[in-house]
Design a protein that fits this description.
This protein is an all-alpha fold and about 120 residues long.
């Protein structure tokens, strides 16, 4: 299966294969993509209308807009969430390796071998 973002050409193919009534699995098979990628594309960039049509030009524009939008904005605007994420990153960095976690969790036990204290 190929990796990365869907191209405009792939969205064009998805559009036409949906018109023929093919399933997500069959579209994925023909494009060499996972069926979940096709389903995610249809859900994220498909029509917001009741008819549920998929328009490749609109879908590509939405995908490009989403790609340009910074992902960290929510975290930074919510002070409590930002502090929680930073504190979690600091904790993970302090106790990163499994051997460090073992030493940290069992630091008060004298019966462990010297290498694990």
């Amino acid at each position: 299966m190929s990796q990365g973002h869907l191209s405009s050409e792939e969205r064009y193919v998805i559009y036409h294969l949906r018109l023929y009534g093919l399933s997500r699995r069959e579209i994925g098979r023909r494009l060499g993509r996972a069926h979940t990628t096709i389903g995610r594309e249809l859900r994220r960039n498909g029509s917001r209308m009741v008819d549920g049509n998929y328009w490749h030009e609109t879908a590509h524009r939405r995908a490009l807009e989403r790609r340009r939008r910074p992902r960290h904005r929510r975290r930074r605007s919510n002070g409590r969430l930002h502090a929680y994420v930073v504190a979690g990153a600091d904790r993970r960095a302090a106790v990163a390796r499994p051997s460090d976690r073992c030493r940290h969790a069992h630091r008060h036990r004298d019966h462990l071998p010297m290498g694990l204290r």
